[in-house]
Amino acid sequence: MRRIWIFSGIAAALFVGLGLIEAMDADHPLTVGGLALDMIEKGLLASAVVATAYVALEGRDMRRDRNLLLNDLARARADGDRWREAAKVHLDGLGRAIQDQFDKWALTQGEADIAVLMLKGLSHKEIARLRVTSEATVRQQATSIYRKCGLASRAELAAFFLEDLLAPRNEVPVRGQQKMALVDRS
To answer: Which class for 148: exposed (0-12), middle (13-18), buried (19 or more C-beta within 10 A)?
Structure first.
């Protein structure tokens, strides 16, 4: 915001300076109409010069910000790639365990695909778009998944698979209690 005031000041100074130079020009007589037209012309010229400089600086800043964001994105992707590589064995095992649980629940392949997309956090609308189907069909399949799993919601579906992964193995403090041992689901 400070930059716009600086450039406004430069434009005003340029405008006044050009106006004074024009007023000192003794080649033609000074009339009110001529002076007004000259001032408009000088004002437009000053505004155009300052606007061009302002846009150039904003463009430079936007390019710098874009490069910083691209660098951050590249670092985040590299971190994600390193994490996925380090966790590959575990992720593969988890993927197989999830698929085995889907088989135990007797989910169809379509339901299993939708369940995976729901676990990834996609909305029904996004899933419908990916699967080239209607949102109503996805909702119907989600309801069927919950019924077969004996769960009530997407949150319960995610919790079924993630609950024990995200907690310490021995004991978990529970609000209002000292400590509570984890329940083993195996």
So the answer is: middle
